[in-house]
Amino acid sequence: MTRLIVTSLLLMTVAATAAAQGQRGSISGVVGFPSEEIPALRIYAIAVDGKAHFSATSARKQSRFSIKDVPAGQYFVVAYPVAKGEAPVEAGGWTRFVQCGMNANCKDHALVPVTVTAGQVATGVNVADWYAQAGTFPPEPAQKPKPSAASADCASMKSQLEEDACNLKAHEAADKVLNREYQRLIVDLAKAPTCRNQLRDAQRAWIRFRDEHCRYEAGTGPKGRMTQCLRELTELRAGYLQRQTPDLCNP
User: Fold this and answer.
1) Helices (H) and strands (E) in the chain, counts
2) Which one, of 176, 165, 150, lies nearest residue 21 by Cα?
3) Given 5, 55, 210, 231, which is the most exposed site by the fewest CB atoms within 10 A?
């Protein structure tokens, strides 16, 4: 009987996960750049209302990109150099200027909305417009884990139980981002084993620090501080990993 209950719970969890994933899609495309070598870029899908953003980081010379786990909706796709000063302007985008062949007679640098459908990949995106005047595209979003329903101000909840649940959900969302970015870096650093091993050691040390520090916070801080601390440190670490690229490796 116990085994049947456990099996049922596992099946329910898998089904729930699959259903949640089905509500999201992805965006894939290519990057064009006005020089022989494409720099490392952070490429964003920015909701047309500006309320959310999702990103991927490409390595130097990488021309293809994929932004995964994006909720259904409409987005502008904009790229920003990881190292400032490596582009003629601060950002490049998928615009009407690119659609019309970047012809000198085409003056329209308006961003093209990309429609993301649940369970589908939006393709055909070409981030190649680096010719618009500065300020045409939105500034790069703040470097932090992508927002989620759990990332609201948990302190505004009506009860301690609700606040704890809010922080727990936000922590789980940030931890998912952290693990994804960590695995991306491990793969990207395959040809730089020294940096890859240093990253692995650093991540293990960080996990120990986070857990021990938050236990201390829980013992000295207000009620619910443990979950809040885990959330805060995990969000910071996830944001840090999002900014890392193989080009930064200097063993």
Assistant:
1) 5, 8
2) 176
3) 5
- Domains plus CATH for the chain? 25-127 (2.60.40.1120), 149-248 (1.20.1270.180)
Evaluate if pTM is beyond 0.85: no
pLDDT digits (tens, 9 = 90+) for 229-247: 999 899 999 988 887 877 7
DSSP type of residue 150: G
Model confidence pLDDT, tens digit, residues 127-183:
999 999 888 899 888 654 444 444 457 777 778 888 888 889 889 989 999 999 999
- Among 177, 149, 158, 163, smallest CA distance to 234 is for 177
25 in Cβ contact with 54 (< 8 Å): no
The size of the chain, in residues, is 251
H-type alpha helices, the chain: 2-21, 96-99, 160-188, 193-220, 225-242
The DSSP bridge pattern shows strands 121-127 and 92-93 to be: unpaired
